[in-house]
Write a structure and sequence with these properties.
The structure holds two protein chains of two kinds.
Chain A: E1 10-14, H1 19-29, E2 33-38, H2 57-62, E3 67-71, H3 76-87, E4 91-94, H4 100-104, H5 108-114, E5 119-124, H6 139-146, H7 169-190, E6 194-199, H8 200-206, H9 209-218, E7 235-239, E8 246-250, H10 254-263, H11 278-283, H12 285-296, H13 301-310, E9 314-317, H14 321-325, H15 328-332, E10 336-341, E11 345-350, E12 354-356, H16 374-380, H17 386-394, E13 398-399
Parallel strand pairs in A: 1-2, 1-4, 2-3, 4-5, 5-6
Antiparallel strand pairs in A: 3-13, 7-8, 8-9, 10-11
Chain B: E1 13-17, H1 23-31, E2 35-40, H2 65-70, E3 75-78, H3 84-96, E4 99-102, H4 108-111, H5 116-122, E5 127-132, H6 147-153, H7 174-197, E6 202-206, H8 207-215, H9 218-225, H10 241-244, E7 247-250, E8 253-257, H11 262-271, H12 286-291, H13 293-304, H14 309-319, E9 323-325, H15 329-333, H16 336-340, E10 344-349, E11 353-358, E12 362-364, H17 382-389, H18 394-402
Parallel strand pairs in B: 1-2, 1-4, 2-3, 4-5, 5-6
Antiparallel strand pairs in B: 7-8, 8-9, 10-11
Helix pairs in contact in B: 1-7, 7-8, 11-14
Classes of the chains: A alpha/beta, B alpha/beta.
Chain lengths: 401, 406
């Protein structure tokens, strides 16, 4: 069997929250040795979202397949150990607030003195070089600051609220992985490392690029259109039978419309000329949506989804986690995996979302307990004696599980 | 003049047979300097050329803003793969390429005799990525998808919008962009491995699977942490955006507040001038605030409306509570930070003229990562690619055009 794609690559991760932790997780799953720098004194805030720092769902998902090195960065000795690890590393990732890495002495300028060909990615809310560079920022704020949240609403909503999710964090983490892989490829060819300054608000912005073009070219400030689409109807998320059950349906062409009508039993209203073609349907979309919803309200969303898909119409129920767990496609393609974590036990996590013909990845490893690999890393990489390790533990330089 | 820096991926040639599902994937590669050749059908081109809105609001294949945004930095040629001569030319291109990205329904490439097994015989180094709605296998393999359908299936839509209202869609095509970024990762992994093994490989990427991973992959895991062998089922998820990350009106718009810790809440009270009603101890509890979000909203109105978005943004930063303006598109474009980062660059397109275009979301110190060319017009680079690169004559080109191969 071929070796893991990133075997031999070492990543030092100064990550907190979602972006850099998720970034490190993906590199770890691809075979890199990812070392998370953390300590009891300065916890990744996701570890604090529950009573037990080692039993947090989000943390244990975003930190799979890496090692935890518990070290207090406020101590000179701790910093010295991290400098030694950086000397053995290929990639550094960080997403502390702007300015924190400088104050710790681990900014790019310092790190490249230790390891000249390092690939260093810094992921900040707003990015460097502007007035908001050191502003604390979480995903939901960046969706707001980019203009994305403004458009994430029904036209009649009093204001946009989006969802309780940190979008664009998990897009930013993948952008960061793509970026360092490109940088690694360049380093392989030229021997040169570099610094990548990523802005998470710009990641959010890159999801809606055409709206900025609308502003620039058409001098228009785009408004939210909710579930409607300017060139398709029906196109909405319709209420179905049951408690808070919904199904999204989209019909783009007249051919699809014919098949849609047939699939729902050709009720009389579908013959009305005002629904005959896309332009007419768009013109009468409020009435159309009411009639479609009359049908969806009589059926459960799974039935609607499968009936319409069998007729070649794009339809998908608004799934909750439990629906996803039981989804036949998710099951068959092994999109979810079970991992046994020493504290959390057997839980479900998303699998790496692509399949490659010549690459077999090792099974995912559970997220580390805080400081789980401190001693192992001290012995194996830093060549420290048991006595030395013990002394640094007593001096509160090292944290172990 | 200083020499133009090369991009991190400038040694690679990419063939782009992608529609809405993968145009952002090849853009990511092009922004890093890869030579991306968009191969479009001669009649009408890529289907994304028909997506509104259009520059000047006139439907036109060179004026779709969606197309213009996601195809900058690429070259464009035309080729009809359904004709034997088209397929032969395509195979010649494959011989010269490092990467092929395609987004046809499963089985279509095979029906044309352009399956990966065939193409890798022509070029063993080829990395091929197929981005499909539901993947190459499984019971949904032939299902149809759309942006709203993938969003619904992602587990994020059921939590989007107001509690009592209908779940609300995300703008644009985030599920396709998630699949595109993840496909670009798999391509990079394959290229990186190719440097050692000398051979390419095939990557199967499903939008259905990537959508959840790119938007919010924690939902299933959170749910599974609530599942205990003898315990009750976990609480159902609701549409809680407004209660967890509240939005409040101010003088000139709205702000979103992320106050999670007691320290952040105290800072928020400070920002608002320490009103007595907000100093009640129970409000310090995050869970209490979520449970009583409507009451809190009614209380907050009086205070937040005294300030502008910018005042609250600055004061939040000063006191230690993240508060952010809900900008519309103009607010973001004109923000001081966006300007300082030079996030928008002027492009000049032969049909639509000059406009401001967003740069990639990162700055690189060693390699070039910037937008240098607008999206190609249909067939704009036929001569460059077919004559200069494949060695065809201008007469050949005319004959191919006559036969509607290109």
């Amino acid at each position: 069997m071929s070796k893991a794609p990133l075997e031999g690559i070492r990543v030092i991760s100064f990550g907190t929250g979602a972006v850099i932790p998720d970034f490190g997780k993906i590199l770890g799953e691809l075979g890199a040795d990812v070392i998370k720098i953390e300590s009891r004194d300065n916890l990744d805030f996701v570890r604090t979202l529950g009573p037990d720092i080692n039993n947090i769902h989000g943390f244990n998902e975003s930190n799979r397949s890496k090692r935890s090195f518990g070290v207090n960065l406020k101590t000179d000795k701790g910093k010295e150990l991290v400098r030694k690890l950086i000397k053995m590393a290929d990639i550094v990732g960080e997403n502390f607030r702007g300015g924190v890495m400088e104050s710790l002495g681990f900014d790019y300028e310092n790190v490249r003195q230790i390891k000249p060909d390092i690939i260093y990615i810094s992921s900040q809310g707003f990015g460097r070089g502007g007035p908001y560079s050191d502003y604390q920022a979480y995903g939901p704020m960046l969706a707001a600051a980019s203009g994305l949240l403004y458009l994430w609403a029904h036209p009649e909503d009093p204001y946009p609220v989006g969802a309780n999710v940190p979008l664009p964090d998990h897009m930013a983490s993948k952008q960061a992985v793509f970026a360092v892989l490109a940088a690694l490829d360049y380093r392989r060819r030229t021997g040169k490392g570099q610094f990548i300054d990523m802005s998470q608000v710009e990641v959010a912005a890159s999801l809606i690029g055409e709206y900025y073009l609308d502003y620039s070219l058409n001098k228009r400030v785009p408004k939210a259109v909710g579930n409607r689409n300017p060139y398709a109807a029906p196109h909405n998320c319709y209420r179905c039978k049951g408690d808070d059950q919904w199904c999204a349906i989209s019909v783009f062409t007249n051919d699809e419309w014919q098949r849609f009508c047939h699939a729902i039993g050709n009720p009389k209203w579908t013959e009305d000329p005002k629904f005959a073609d896309t332009v007419s349907r768009l013109r009468n979309v409020d009435e159309l949506d009411k009639l479609v919803e009359k049908w969806t309200m009589e059926h459960d969303p799974t039935e609607i989804m499968t009936t319409l898909q069998a007729a070649g119409i794009a339809a998908g129920m608004a799934q909750r986690a439990a629906d996803t767990i039981n989804d036949p496609q998710v099951k068959q393609t092994k999109a979810l995996i079970e991992i046994d974590h020493p504290v959390a036990g057997k839980r479900l996590y998303p699998n790496i979302p692509f399949r490659m013909s010549n690459t077999t990845l090792s099974p995912s490893r559970p997220a580390p307990l805080l400081g789980q690999h401190t001693e192992e890393i001290c012995r194996q990489l830093l060549r420290m004696s048991a006595k030395e390790i013990q002394r640094l533990k007593e001096e509160k330089v090292l944290d172990t599980a | 003049m200083p020499k133009e820096r090369e991009g991190a991926l400038s040694v690679y040639r990419v063939l782009d047979l992608a529609d809405i599902k993968g145009t952002y994937c090849t853009k990511l590669l092009a922004d890093q300097g890869a030579e991306v050749i968009k191969v479009e059908r001669p009649k009408g081109g890529c289907p994304t050329r028909n997506i509104p809105p259009f520059a000047g609001d006139v439907p036109h294949i060179e004026k779709s803003l969606y197309f213009l945004y996601r195809n900058a930095n690429k070259y464009g040629i035309t080729l009809d793969l359904e004709l034997p001569d088209g397929r032969n030319l395509f195979k010649k291109l494959v011989k010269t390429a490092d990467v092929l990205v395609e987004t046809y329904p499963p089985g279509y490439m095979e029906s044309l005799g352009l399956h990966y097994k065939v193409l890798k015989k022509i070029n063993p180094k080829l990395v091929m990525a197929s981005i499909t709605e539901f993947g190459q296998t499984g019971p949904y393999r032939d299902w149809k998808g759309s942006s709203i359908v993938h969003y619904a299936l992602s587990t994020t839509m059921i939590g989007s919008g107001f509690t009592e209202g209908a779940p609300v869609n995300l703008p644009s095509t985030p599920s396709y962009d998630a699949a595109s970024i993840i496909a670009a990762i798999s391509i990079m992994v394959a290229l990186y491995q190719r440097a050692t093994t000398g051979v390419g490989q095939y990557c199967d990427v499903s939008v259905h699977e990537c959508s959840r991973i790119g938007l919010y992959p924690w939902m299933v895991t959170i749910y599974s942490y609530g599942m205990t062998p003898d315990g009750p089922p976990p609480a159902p998820e609701g549409r809680l955006g407004a209660s967890i990350y509240p939005v409040y009106p101010c003088k000139d718009g709205f702000v979103r507040v992320v106050a999670i810790t007691p320290r952040q809440w105290e800072a928020l009270v400070q920002v608002l001038g320490e009103p007595e009603v907000l100093r009640l101890p129970e409000w310090r509890e995050f869970m209490y605030r979520i449970a009583n979000a409507a009451d809190l909203y009614a209380l907050m109105l009086e205070f937040t409306t005294k300030y502008t978005m910018a005042e609250l943004f600055e004061a939040g930063h000063r006191e230690g509570v993240p508060i952010v303006p809900i900008y519309d598109v103009a607010g973001f474009v004109n923000s001081r930070h966006t300007k300082a980062r030079k996030f928008f660059v002027k492009l000049d397109h032969p049909v639509v003229g000059k406009f401001d275009y967003p740069e990639p979301p990162y700055k690189w110190t060693e390699t070039s990562c910037r937008i240098s060319r607008p999206a190609p017009c249909l067939g704009e680079h036929n001569e460059k690619i077919y004559c200069q690169e494949l060695g065809l004559s201008k007469d050949d080109l005319a004959a191919l055009r006559q036969a509607e191969v290109i």
